[in-house]
Amino acid sequence: MENNGILKAQSPAALAEEYIVKSIWNNYFPAGSDLPAERELAERIGVTRTTLREVLQRLAREGWLSIQHGKPTRVNDIWETAGPNIISTIIKLDKNYLSVVISNVVSLRTRMAEAYIPEAVRLAPEESAKLFDELDNLENTATAYAEFDYKLFRKFTFLANKPVYALILNSFKSMYHQVAKIFFNDLNNRQLTLNFYRTLLAACIAKDSEKATACMEKHRQSSGDIWKKLSANIPESFGEL
Predict the structure, then answer these.
(1) Which region is the signal sequence (predicted)?
(2) CB under 8 Å to 132, separation ≥6 — which residues?
(3) Distance (Å, rounded) from C-alpha 181 to C-alpha 177?
C-alpha cells in the first residue's frame, strides 16, 4: 500500500520517525526482524545517530520497537505491544482503519461506562449527582458537549473506585473528543444526550443504581443506531491531531 505523504515530517527527528514507522507498516521492516545498524540507518535516512537514537527510544516507548543493550533493535508486532496512543498514527497510515477505530472507541467508552456508572450511583449517589451541577449552563455546541461528556464519564470512574478506567480514558482523550464532536455536531444528538444526562441525574438523586443501568442501556441502543448512520460519512480530516 502506498502511503507517501500521509505522515508529514517537519524536522530531522520527524523525518526519521516517518521513515521507520512507514517502513514497519508497509512490512519493509517486518515484525520480528531487526532494524539495520544505527550508522547504516542514520545514513540512509539522512539524520545524525544522536537524532536517530532519540527517535528509536520514543518508538520503543510507543511499542513499535524493542531495544536491548548490545543487541539489534527488534521490530515489534504493534497489535501485541502498542497502546491506544498510536491510534492517530494508524489512521494517518491507513484510512481504512477509520471506521473500525471509531466503532471501537464508541464501544469501549459505552461498555465500560455501563459497568462503572451504576456502581458509582450505588456507592456515592450524592457525589454522582453533583457531577451534573454545570448541566444547566452547558453551552449548546458540539465542542462543549464533547468536553462535558468526557469529564463526566471520567469523574464517574473515581466515584466507582475504578481509577484504571480513568487511565484508559486518558489514553485516548484526543480521539474521544474527535469522535464525540462528530456525534454532537447534530442538534438532535445533543438533545438526545441532554435527555440522557437528565435521566441519569434523576437516578443519582433517587439513589437508584438499577435505574442508572437501564438508562445506560437505553442510551447505548439509541445512540448506537445513530452511529451506524454516521460511520458512513466520517470526514477525511478525522485523526489529523
Answers:
(1) none
(2) 152, 197, 200, 201, 204
(3) 6
Query: For residue 231, is pLDDT > 70?
Result: no
Asked whether residue 240 is assigned to any structural domain, the reply reads no
Residue 101 lies in a domain: yes
Please state the separation of Cα 146 from the chain's center in Å: 13
DSSP secondary structure string for all residues of 101-162? HHHHHHHHHHHHHHHHHHHHHHH-HHHHHHTTTTGGG--SSHHHHHHHHHHHHHHHHHHTT-
Work out the percent of the chain whose per-residue pLDDT is above 70: 92
Distance spanning both ends of the chain, measured CA to CA:
23
CATH number at residue 196: 1.20.120.530
Same domain, 77 and 100: no
pLDDT, tens digit, for every residue of 119-143? Answer: 999 999 999 999 999 999 999 999 9
pTM of the model: 0.77
Say if residue 67 is in the same domain as residue 96. Answer: no
What's the rounded Cα separation, in Å, for the pair 187 and 141?
Answer: 8
Instruction: Identify the domain containing residue 61 by its residue range.
Output: 12-82
Say whether both 141 and 125 belong to one domain: yes
Q: Is residue 216 in some structural domain?
A: yes
Where is 65: in which H helix or E strand?
strand 65-66
CB count within 10 Å of CB 151 equals 13
State the pLDDT at residue 5: 47
